[in-house]
Design a protein that fits this description.
Layout: H1 3-9, E1 17-23, E2 26-37, E3 47-57, E4 60-63, E5 72-75, E6 80-84, E7 90-94, E8 104-106
Parallel strand pairs: 5-8
Antiparallel strand pairs: 1-2, 1-5, 2-3, 3-4, 6-7
Length: about 120
C-alpha cells in the first residue's frame, strides 16, 4: 500500500506536510497543515506556520495533543528538520528554529535493527 493510500484511509489531507518522528520508541510520520495567515498591514509579510495534526505509526493514527509533545522525537538530518509532501515537495528548516518547541530533536540511526515478534503475534 502506498503512503497516499494510507493517508486517504486515515483521513489525512494529501496537502499536509510530514516529517520523520519517534513516538513511544516507534518510528512514524508526524503530519502538519501548512497555514498562511495574511497580514492586515500593508508592507508586512504574511505569517507562515505549521499546525500540528497527527502522527501515523504502523497504520495507527494518533491525533496530536499537548500531552504527547514531550514524548515526540523529531529526526534531524545535517542540522535540519526536513518536511515532505506526498507530491515530492520538500522544506528544510534549521534545527535552531525549533528551540522554543517542546519536541526533542535527535539524529536517528541509519542502521536497521531487528525486532522480535510481539508475544501476542499470531501468524495466519
Amino acid at each position: 500500500m502506498s503512503l497516499l493510500e494510507i493517508m486517504k484511509e486515515n483521513d489525512i489531507d494529501v496537502n499536509w506536510v510530514f516529517t520523520h518522528v519517534k513516538f513511544h520508541n516507534k518510528e512514524g510520520l508526524f503530519f502538519f497543515e501548512s497555514i498562511v495567515k495574511e497580514s492586515d498591514e500593508e508592507g508586512e509579510e504574511d505569517e507562515h506556520y505549521f499546525d500540528t495534526k497527527c502522527i501515523l505509526i504502523d497504520d495507527a493514527k494518533f491525533i496530536y495533543g499537548d500531552d504527547m509533545e514531550k514524548e515526540i522525537e523529531i529526526n534531524v538530518i545535517n542540522g535540519n528538520v526536513i518536511f515532505n509532501r506526498v507530491d515530492g515537495a520538500e522544506v528544510s528548516i534549521p534545527e535552531n528554529e525549533f528551540k522554543d518547541l517542546p519536541f526533542r530533536l535527535t539524529t536517528f540511526s541509519n542502521s536497521v535493527s531487528k525486532h522480535s515478534k510481539p508475544t501476542d503475534y499470531v501468524e495466519v
